[in-house]
Predict the structure of ABC transporter substrate-binding protein.
Amino acid sequence: MKRPGAGRLSALLVVPAVLSLALAACSPPGAGTAAQGGDGGDGPFEVTLLANADPPDFDPHTPGADEKANVVMNVFDTLTVLSPDLQETLPSLATEWAAIDDTTWEFTLRDDVDFSNGEHFDAEAVKFSVERIMDPDAEVARIGYSFPTLESAEVIDETTVRIHTNVPDPIFPERAYALDIVPPEYTSSVSESEFAMNPIGTGAYTLADFVPGQQIVLEANPNYWGEKPEVDRLIIKPVPEASTRTAELETGGADIIKNAPVGQIPELEAADGVHVEALAGRRIAYIGMNLLPGGEEALQDKRVRQALNYAVDVQLILDTVMEGYGDRTATVFRPDFTGFDPDLKPYPHDPEKAKELLAEAGYGDGLSLSIQFSEEIFASAGEVINALAAQLAEVGVDATIEVLDHPSYRSVVIDGQEANEVAPLFAWQWGALEPSADSLINGTLETGGVSAYYSNPELDDLTQQARQEMDITKREDLYKQIQALLKEEAPFIFLYQIPDVYGISDRVQFSPRLDQYVIAKDLKRAE
């Protein structure tokens, strides 16, 4: 992540000397944060987290908003987990795993786990969960984009399950971090909507209370199979206004706030009993283009798409709107992805080149496009889009801005291809969990992806090859080819890796993770 002071406007930026710029890769859970005060340590330990909004539901198998993840990751367990930097695959409900053949992974399961309703966890629960994710008749969209190779699950015995893939999948154990396990008996006995609002898992916490617009209360699961967590209750409150979240933290009404605007970092750093952690996040921001039949005709011309990328000065936006935070990306690849190509550079800001390409494409007299977004799609979205639109105007592209409320906007973009209600340009972001671009490409670019408005047989073919390539060197080469293709075809206006900024009470030990989850069992009292 760029540090404040980078870029052309660095002299205008204020850099708090004590700001902690900790990469999650260097920060194991429970270590590294400032710790002052404490609450005595005798009574129940409650931690209050402020989020942007309520989650739409708590079903771990439906597409997840950020707001849902902090409930799901505390209530449910997965077969494997990833380390805070997402680079290491660790045991969870599965104690070990091995490839049986090119398309079969065998997982050995814990035998001492019950769901919070008393139902026993076993291989049948894994099989049920796999089949639920893959159910083609499901009433709502599932997270199938996270498992593009998943074929079936086979119960060998109570503690052994085999996952069959339709092609070789070298990273399936990493993908299993998103495979939340649900209880078969309970899940089958209730409706989809009832399960979504009354989740049951094997996790360290249970959902104790949910009052929409006010709070979500998670309580420690007394029958949890793992180590007893130190936090007794995690209270999650929706507070849309960033300034209100900051005020709540400063006055002791909250312990952790997420997505703190970078402009409020100096204020947080100056407050008593509060510290800040900022890190390069897992989410990549971009401006999508509706390139499906029926979309804006001009965008079908690659020269126009490239022109939009030349027209936008992303670094200037980062330096000004984002105050130096956020990393420019050449495409949608993060540096930690397999096969990331550091030699592939972002489009330079070149308005004259943009005008030249627009003229070649027949739009020398100008072009009108609309751009959709929601304020919550990423931090400072409104300011970013306004700055971007102003830069497009400088090359003759009149961008009309349309703001939607976040639930409506998600509904338009997610699986909205058939309705085709998305604007020619739309702000979006994606945060792959595993250190691979596969789910990102599958979800946003591969033909038929959940938020894909693009179809390119060459990209689809390369993605399929990379997905099943067992040789790491060959896989890396395929991903480099994909990056070069993406830059050349420019299906997005490529933006940046979104910075994660947390404000944290000194009474809590918390080290942010690259996946952005606040996992309550990892939180500790400050000493």
Observations:
- The first strand starts at residue 46 and ends at 51.
- The chain is about 25% helix and 20% strand.
- Residues 472-489 form the longest helix (18 residues).
- Residues 305 and 452 are 16 Å apart (CA to CA).
